[in-house]
Design goal:
About 40% of the residues lie in helices and about 20% in strands. The strands form 2 sheets. Strands 7, 8, 9, 10, 11, 12, 13, 14 and 15 form a 9-stranded antiparallel beta sheet that branches. It has a 6-stranded mixed beta sheet with strand order 1-4-3-2-5-6. A hairpin with a 4-residue loop joins strand 9 and strand 10. The longest helix has about 30 residues.
C-alpha cells in the first residue's frame, strides 16, 4: 500500500511541476483537435471524439511507463545508444505534426492500417499515437520516486513492487495532464471561433508538435525548466522524508546490484567487502574526459576507484573537496582513479556551465559525471553530500564514508588498497590538508532563504513565497535570520523587490559564507560596526562574509541591492 501511496503522490507532484510545461501546449491542442478521418464529411466540421483526450494521455502513460521500466534494459541488450528511443519519439512527433498540417500526408500514414475497422483508425492520427510519441520524449523532474524506478529498470530488477510503483506514478502524472487535455477539448467545443476553424486548429496543433520536436533537439525544454523555479521541490523533499518514503528503501529501491552495500558501515576503520560497485548511469554529461566520453567502471579494473558524490554550492562538499583533490594529485600515478559524481541539490546546480565553473574553482581535474537525474546517486543508495565510496582493483566496494571528516581513515584505506593492487607500488607521503570539519553543534545550521527550504527565520511571522514588506524584530533568536524591507521570496532564493534591503543574521561559527547570484555589490556590517563590500557577479556561488581562526558568536547585517539573489548562509 505504501508503494501505491508514494507512487501516486510522486506522480501528482510531477504532474504539476515545471517539467510538464514543454508538453502542455501539445496535450491541450491535440486533446480537442480532430484528425482528418474523425468522421466529418466534405466541408463538415465536427469536434474531436470524447475519447481523444483519454487516448492521448493513455498513449503517453503507456509509452512513458515502458520506456522508464524496460527502455534501458532493452537498449542494453540490443547494444543501442540510450538516446535512440528519444530520437524515435522526436521523429514520430514531426511526422504526426506534418500529418495534422497536410491531410493527404495523414491519409498516406493511415493506408497501411486500412485493414483495421474504421472506428479504430479514426482516433489514431492525433490521439493515441501522439500520446505514444510524447511518452517517449517526456522527461519529468527526477524526484525520489522516478529515480527509484529508473534505477530498477536500468538494473533489470523489474519485480511486482517496481511495476506497482511505476503504474502508481504514471496514474499520478496522468491525472493533471488529463485535466489539461479535457480542458483543451472543452475550450475548442465551447468557443464558436474554434469550432468554425477546424482547419486552423489542426495546423496549430501540428505546428505545436513540430515546435516541441525541434525544441527537444536543442534542449529548449531543459532551458525553460531552469528559468522557471521548481515550486514542487519542497513537496518532493517532504515525500522522500515521509513515513511512506521508507517504501523506497535507503535512497531508492534495493536491487540485486546494490543490495550488498548494507554490508558496509559508515566510516568503518578496517576494509570491508560490500559487493560489486553499481555502474555509473543516467549521466547527462561528463567533464574532464577526452571528448566528454563516459567512463565505464568495468574498464577501470586493476585501479583503485574513489567515487565522490558532491554538489558545487554545498558547504560540506567545499570543505571536503580539497582532500579529494589532494588524493587525486598524490595517488593517481600509483593507480587511484577519482570520479566526482555531481548530484545537484538546487536547480541551478544542474547547469553544466555552472558545474564546470565550480570544478575549475576547486581545482578539480579528475572526471566529473553530471548526475542530474540522481540515477547514480540512487543506484548507490546515497543520501549525503559529500559521500565517498572506495572501490578496490576488482571492482568491489570496500569502504563508505558519509558526510565530512574522518579523512585520515579514508586516505589510509586508499593506500592499503593501492598496495594490495600492486605490492611493488611506491607511494608518496600522506597528504597534509587540514580537516576543517566543524565539531558537532559548534556552528549554526545551514540556513536557506528560499520559501521551500526556509529554516531559522527569526522574525516570528510566517515565511512564504511572494513579495512582502519585512521589518527586523526587536528581539531576534540566536542562530536565525530576519529581513528588513521589501523582499521577493522565491522557492529557492530571496531578492529585494526594488530597492536595497537588509538581512540580519545571528550566528556562531568560524566562517560565514553566503550563496549569491546576479549582479551588484552587497555590504556586510558586523556587530562591532566594521563594514566591507563584496562584488557579486554571475551564476550562484559562495562568497565569504566572515573568516577567522576560532569560533565566534555574533551578528552580521547584509545590505543586498535589487538584482542580487540570496540563496543561503553556510557555516564553517
Amino acid at each position: 500500500m505504501d508503494l501505491v501511496i508514494i507512487g501516486v503522490l510522486g506522480g501528482l507532484i510531477t504532474g504539476i511541476s515545471p517539467c510538464i510545461l514543454p508538453v502542455l501546449p501539445v496535450i491541450f491542442l491535440t486533446g480537442g483537435t480532430p484528425s482528418a478521418r474523425d468522421g466529418a464529411g466534405e466541408g463538415e466540421v465536427l469536434p474531436a471524439r470524447r475519447s481523444r483526450p483519454f487516448l492521448v494521455i493513455a498513449g503517453l502513460v503507456l509509452s512513458f511507463s515502458l520506456v522508464t521500466l524496460v527502455g534501458s534494459l532493452l537498449l542494453g541488450l540490443l547494444h543501442l545508444p540510450q538516446d535512440v528511443i528519444r530520437w524515435a519519439g522526436i521523429a514520430v512527433l514531426v511526422v504526426l505534426g506534418i500529418g495534422l498540417i497536410v491531410p493527404r500526408f495523414e491519409q498516406l500514414l493511415e493506408k497501411p492500417f486500412q485493414w483495421l475497422p474504421r472506428r479504430n483508425v479514426e482516433n489514431r492520427g492525433s490521439g493515441f499515437g501522439v500520446g505514444l510519441a510524447l511518452g517517449a520524449v517526456f522527461v519529468p523532474c527526477a524526484g525520489p520516486v522516478l529515480a527509484a524506478i529508473i534505477v530498477a529498470g536500468a538494473t533489470g530488477r523489474i519485480g511486482w513492487d517496481t511495476v506497482v510503483l511505476t503504474v502508481s506514478f504514471a496514474v499520478g502524472v496522468a491525472l493533471p495532464l488529463l485535466v489539461f487535455a479535457l480542458a483543451g477539448r472543452g475550450v475548442i467545443q465551447r468557443i464558436r471561433a474554434f469550432r468554425n476553424r477546424e482547419r486552423g486548429l489542426r495546423i496549430t496543433a501540428g505546428v505545436a508538435m513540430i515546435a516541441l520536436a525541434i525544441g527537444l533537439v536543442f534542449n529548449v525544454p531543459q532551458m525553460l525548466q531552469r528559468l522557471v523555479p521548481d515550486y514542487t521541490a519542497g513537496f518532493q523533499q517532504g515525500l522522500a522524508n515521509s513515513p511512506q518514503g521508507g517504501a523506497l528503501g535507503l535512497g531508492g529501491l534495493v536491487t540485486d546490484e546494490n543490495r550488498d552495500l548494507d554490508k558496509c558501515t559508515n566510516d568503518a576503520t578496517p576494509l570491508q567487502s560490500c559487493g560489486t560497485a553499481p555502474q555509473i548511469r543516467g549521466i547527462q554529461q561528463w567533464l574532464n574526459t577526452p571528448g566528454g566520453a563516459p567512463i565505464d567502471l568495468k574498464s577501470l579494473r586493476g585501479k583503485v576507484v574513489l567515487i565522490d558524490f558532491w554538489a558545487y554550492s554545498c558547504i560540506n562538499c567545499q570543505r571536503s573537496i580539497p582532500h579529494v583533490v589532494a588524493w587525486d594529485k598524490a595517488y593517481s600515478a600509483a593507480g587511484l582513479q577519482v570520479i566526482g559524481v555531481h548530484s545537484p541539490e538546487y536547480a541551478f546546480e544542474k547547469d553544466p556551465g555552472n558545474v564546470a565553473a565550480g570544478a575549475r574553482d576547486f581545482g578539480i581535474d579528475y572526471p566529473v559525471a553530471l548526475d542530474n537525474s540522481l540515477a547514480t546517486w540512487t543506484a548507490y543508495r546515497n543520501r549525503y553530500w559529500p559521500a565517498h565510496y572506495l572501490i578496490d582493483a576488482k571492482g568491489v566496494v570496500r569502504h563508505i564514508s558519509f558526510g565530512e571528516g574522518d579523512y585520515a581513515t579514508t586516505e589510509r584505506l586508499i593506500r592499503e588498497l593501492l598496495q594490495q593492487a600492486d605490492p611493488r607500488v611506491e607511494l608518496p607521503k600522506q597528504t597534509e590538508v587540514a580537516d576543517r570539519t566543524p565539531k558537532a553543534g559548534s556552528t549554526t545550521r545551514e540556513t536557506f532563504l528560499g520559501a521551500t527550504k526556509a529554516v531559522n527565520f527569526g522574525a516570528g511571522a510566517a515565511y512564504r513565497a511572494g513579495t512582502t514588506d519585512f521589518a527586523l524584530p526587536s528581539v531576534q533568536p540566536e542562530d536565525s535570520f530576519a529581513l528588513d524591507g521589501a523582499w521577493d521570496v522565491q522557492t529557492q532564493y530571496a531578492t529585494p523587490a526594488d530597492v536595497p534591503a537588509q538581512v540580519r543574521l545571528r550566528y556562531h561559527a568560524t566562517e560565514v559564507r553566503m550563496v549569491l547570484a546576479g549582479s551588484g555589490e552587497i555590504t556586510v556590517r558586523d556587530d562591532e560596526g566594521a563594514m566591507k563590500t563584496i562584488a557579486v557577479s554571475g551564476t550562484p556561488r559562495s562568497y565569504a562574509l566572515r573568516t577567522g581562526s576560532s569560533s565566534h558568536q555574533g551578528t552580521l547585517t547584509v545590505t543586498v541591492p535589487a538584482g542580487v539573489q540570496a540563496y543561503s548562509f553556510t557555516f564553517g
